[in-house]
Design brief:
The chain has a two-stranded antiparallel ribbon with strand order 1-2. Strand 3 and strand 4 form a beta hairpin. The chain has one domain. It has no helices and four strands. The radius of gyration is 17 Å and the shape is elongated. The chain is mainly beta. The two termini are about 25 Å apart.
Length: about 80
Amino acid sequence: MVKSDNPNAGQSGVYYRIPGRATVRLINDMNVIATARITVAQFGAVAPVPEDLLNGEYLIEFNSETGAIQSIQNK
């Protein structure tokens, strides 16, 4: 189990990544061809899954591309 410096991390050691947002520019020589804001999982912060959701009463679905929590449902 990995310990966290976050006092709200709880005891489970279950973490997920909150995706970050980035501005991406496609540049050819000195010309900007395109600019877009995108979600990049690797730039996001790591956060603990709340302990209240790990008691077996909830289904947590994670986005397979970003690692973010996609949905939380009662069983």
